[in-house]
Amino acid sequence: MYHDRYAARAFSMKESAVRALFAVANRPEVVSLAGGMPNIADLPLDIVGDAVRDMIQSAAGPRALQYGSGQGEQMLREQICEVMAEEGIRAHPDDVTVTVGSQQGLDLLTKIFCDPGDVILAEAPSYVGALSTFSSYQAEVVHVEMDDHGLVPERLREAVVTLAAQGKRVKFLYTIPNYSNPSGITQTLERRKAILEVAKETGLLIVEDNPYGLLDLEGGRLPAIRSMEHEQVIYLGSFSKTFSPGIRVGWVLAPHAVREKLVLAQEAATLSPPTFSQYVVSTYLRVHDWRQQITVFRDMYRERRDAMLAALPDYMPVGTTWTHPLGGFFVWLTLPEGIDSQAMLPRAVTNRVAYTPGTAFYADGLGARNIRLSYCYPTPERIREGVRRLGEVLNRESQLNRTFGVRHAGPHFGLAELNTPQPNQE
Amino acid sequence: MTATDSLPTTPAGSDLGTIVVLAGGLSHERDVSLRSGRRVSQALRDRGCTVVESDVNSDLVALLRQLDDPIVFPLVHGATGEDGSLREVLGLLGVPYVGSTASASRIAFDKSIATPVIAGLGLATPIQMALPDEVFRELGARTLMDAMGESIGFPMMVKPSRSGSALGCTRVDDAEQLPSAMVGAYAYGDVAVVESFIIGTEVAVTVVDRGNGPIALPAVEIRPDSGDYDYSSRYSAGTTRFLTPAEVPDEVAAACADMALRVHDRLGLRDISRTDIIIRDGVPVFLETNVAPGMTETSLVPLALEAAGLELGEVCEDLVRQAYLR
């Protein structure tokens, strides 16, 4: 009765077998290296609790429980500008629109920019949640090659030119320059400049998604692309990784014209983004040393990343390669030839370890030989145990491949080579 | 419900002890199982039963011991739920449960045993070969796979001998696809079965025994949009079309019902089972049978109950009552 009434776009929303597996991945018996859930155990809940109580009992209380501005609350937008200044961005609060997580920012941007069939360029691989949003608006994602230094500018130029020649309308480039989800790779400063150069040459709009930017683990924080250009870059930020994901507060920093459309879209979607959440974030930023808190988070994530990077060489079979993230939550693995990461997942779960198969991060079916491991949530000991269990599964898989002559243990593939289809990926 | 349909003062199921609906487990079918569990629990509660939902974990034995008069409704899918091991434990604890015994479940779950047993009844089954993985290591995979191709022919189905929900199952159209299909099946267990691929109409027939002997419910026909009824089409609403009753001639439907009943009887199944069948040229061919069939909103058993004009809660309560009286 419903099936024939759905809009065409509803058919592009699909539940994957992977999603069903997360029910079991979240059991305590299973070491989950799958999700990207921030570990907020270090947040001082007493301070947060007291501050929220004080806020709600103050003159601000009734305002926090009332409808708010479609653009978001003024005082929070001012504070957001201070947060962005940490990454070299100079912005005016008028250009900030508060959203329900940066995920909603992405949704609103896609809604105002994309008609069905329009093209969005994205890194190969790219964030699964963004791919879902794009597909829900029936936009076509074209992946652009990246290497260990991020998106390859020459490939970006080629993609824009080729697609234009095909009569396609490229609406924007979606990029995660810092500690990308899922690859863990960071665009170098030179790359950022070169990508911006290509964008200017070709009139390409850049959507810069930066949820992990402040979680650098080795210092040397790089300036955001938005800090170098403000007309052609739309910037997405989030409090999910630096404060609380449950509070669902993110933002979009966009040029004036875009911001006006965004606010209209936001009003149509929510009337106003949650006022209470905004007051909580604003209070937190005001009463707590949030910069120091981020330092605490960084130290904790560094220890976990190091545990994962130390365990991988001990347990991974020959022919496996991985990235070395300088920040963020993720390590991206390339498995020996012949292994299908999606088919392997139920076996891994049986062996009490979960990961996210690489195919989730491509709109075009690639990624079968890749997996994303996250080190954000489990403790260092559990991370090592999880990697050990994964090694067992991979070794059994490799042994079966040898027995049946499925091609195995090919040469090492760097990220750049991922776009060359391998025989097993066709 | 109209105003005159007033509720009975004593709910029908309130005389039963505490029903423990077991769902979850650590298999890849956990999510499906949890959904089945929630649905059955709600249906039983709506009939006035006292229901406790529980996962299969280290607290289970303590929970069962602590309850006065527990009866278990197992809805755990995957190995632990379907291979008899969980039912063996319930037997050990002396807790009555809905469904087939441990030993019957063990046989039904293992395709390499169930299929030849059903073939022994003179019913049609695929041509099947069952081999453990070490045979391939010892004798050389290439020659064995060549022999399988010659003997069974293409297309063929490669499956783990013991697994549910189509995981590890691959249709193989030529010799080149065989090695990776074998790897896929062996990844789920040490024995794989290779079967001739049966082309035809896929149906599922549910058998329920509410105390008056087993009856077959109307066959549900499965038409996946993608062509293959794989894991994702099994559990995603809208990716598969189900037709109840199946659009097949009456005599064919009767033959399917007869097959399901004979399977239920021959394997010594109890209370409820679901037999999956392909109809080829009007003849039902046995694929497999399930002792813990899914009960989600897109599962086949609830659809069959609906087609038969039966209410899920009522049937579940009858099954619990039988277990209680055993």
UniProtKB/TrEMBL annotation, chain A:
Residue ranges occupied by any Aminotransferase class I/classII large domain in the UniProt entry: 45-390
First and last residue of the signal peptide: none
Pfam families linked: Aminotran_1_2
Superkingdom field: Bacteria
Single GO molecular function: pyridoxal phosphate binding
Keyword Transferase: yes
Keyword DNA-binding: yes
GO biological process: alpha-amino acid metabolic process
Required co-factors: pyridoxal 5'-phosphate
Keyword set, alphabetical order: Aminotransferase, DNA-binding, Pyridoxal phosphate, Transferase
Family: Belongs to the class-I pyridoxal-phosphate-dependent aminotransferase family.
Summary of subunit composition and partner proteins: Homodimer.
Protein name per UniProt: DNA-binding transcriptional regulator, MocR family, contains an aminotransferase domain
Automatic annotation (TrEMBL), chain B:
Annotated Mg(2+) 2 binding sites: 288, 290
Keyword Ribosomal protein annotated: no
Protein name according to UniProt: D-alanine--D-alanine ligase
Keyword terms of this UniProt record: ATP-binding, Cell shape, Cell wall biogenesis/degradation, Cytoplasm, Ligase, Magnesium, Manganese, Metal-binding, Nucleotide-binding, Peptidoglycan synthesis
Record-level GO BP terms: cell wall organization; peptidoglycan biosynthetic process; regulation of cell shape
Cellular compartments per GO CC: cytoplasm
Residue stretches making up the ATP-grasp domain: 115-321
Residues binding Mg(2+) 1, per UniProt: 276, 288
Stored PROSITE patterns: ATP_GRASP
Highest taxon of the lineage: Bacteria
GO molecular function, one term: metal ion binding
Cofactor(s) the protein requires to work: Mg(2+); Mn(2+)
Primary residence: cytoplasm
Database matches in Pfam families: Dala_Dala_lig_C (PF07478)
Catalyzed chemical reaction(s): 2 D-alanine + ATP = D-alanyl-D-alanine + ADP + phosphate + H(+)
Pathways involved: Cell wall biogenesis; peptidoglycan biosynthesis
